[in-house]
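Hi Y.,

Following your request, here is the sequence exactly as I used it, all 156 residues.
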Amino acid sequence: MLERGPVMKEVAVVKKFAVVALFAFAVLFVPRTVSADEINQATKVTFSQPVQIPGQTLPPGTYIFELANSGSGRDLVRIFNADQTQVIATIFTTATTRRDLNPKTEVTLAEQGDGQPQAVFSWFFLDNTTGREFIYPKQTYEQLARAKHDTFPEGD
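Below is the corresponding structure, written out as tokens. Let me know if you'd prefer a different format.
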């Protein structure tokens, strides 16, 4: 059996040190992993009254809003039931901005009057100044854009 000389032992120690140093670098300097909720911005939203979205009215309840991962970009928002077993709607949106970061998700509802439910106008994921504005037919959009808006924070 061959015995390791002092040079071989030194090489082995250097290799072990290099592996440990590489591991430490990876732990300290690699950005944290982004969770699925941050990628698709999945948000639980609860409405106590019916609300309108493009094409339909949602009854009171809890829904999950998330960005769809589509080849056409990030312009689609999917709305699921509370346990995400059913897609309620897939809606075209456009990017919109707000002035300040908010640590909570915000949903903006537009008043419609005449006993109509409020309409979901925009949605911002927490800590983002860019959100999604829901696309309605032109005449409806113009009315909603002029209407009184109420913004509601979601989450804790």
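Residues 25 and 31 are 11 Å apart (CA to CA).

Thanks again,
Q.
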